[in-house]
């Protein structure tokens, strides 16, 4: 995805027994004005996630780093912040390919106006045989996603969706919310062969 000037891309990296092949989630960032350095922003984004969403992930999954790349693509600086924040929701984890499905919502309609995250570390007892999350699990995760967005806003940045070349929308689209789906999602690529 091209990163325009005044914007950045963040990549949260996960490791651990619960994600044997690793996992990442990404988001665009509006860094207009006087942004912090990429390293300061990476550390702040690590702390924002570790202080919120990590509370709902199992201990077999750990947030191990955040990479921030400022735009423009060719010349923008980048930095990595490494740490270790294991999940704090005790209990057995579902298989590695089962994840929380988090929808990135914007004020725009259509496919270009939305995105999603697959966040690993779902607790086994939080999911029924049909793949539905218990209502309490959805509520707790939603609270943590809301807290995460507040923490990101405190860093003087906001999450956006970056768009592919040729997409109907070209300017990055600000997120209005992160929404935890009531059903888990699966990804075949997260299973070992």
What does this structure look like?
The chain is an alpha+beta fold and 193 residues long. The protein has one domain (7-190). It is 17% helix and 34% strand. It contains 2 helices and 9 strands; from the N terminus they run ββαββββαβββ. A hairpin with a 7-residue loop joins β1 and β2 (23-30). α1 runs antiparallel to α2 (135-153). The relative contact order is 0.23.
Present the secondary structure layout.
Blueprint: E1 7-15, E2 23-30, H1 38-50, E3 62-70, E4 78-86, E5 98-106, E6 114-120, H2 135-153, E7 158-161, E8 173-180, E9 185-186
Antiparallel strand pairs: 1-2, 1-3, 2-7, 3-4, 5-6, 5-8, 5-9, 7-8
DSSP summary, beta strand count = 9
Helical percent range? 10-25%
**Residue-averaged pLDDT:** 92
Query: Taking Cα atoms only, what radius of gyration do you get, to the nearest Å?
Result: 16 Å
Distance between the termini: 29 Å
Strand fraction = 25-35%
* SSE series: EEHEEEEHEEE
Sheet having the most strands: 9 strands, antiparallel
Silhouette: globular
- Per DSSP, the total helix count is 2
Number of domains: 1
Q: Helices and strands: which structural class? A: alpha+beta
* Residue runs with pLDDT of under 50 for 5 or more positions: none
Which features would summarize this protein structure in a list?
193 residues; alpha+beta; 9-stranded antiparallel beta sheet; 2 helices; 9 strands; globular
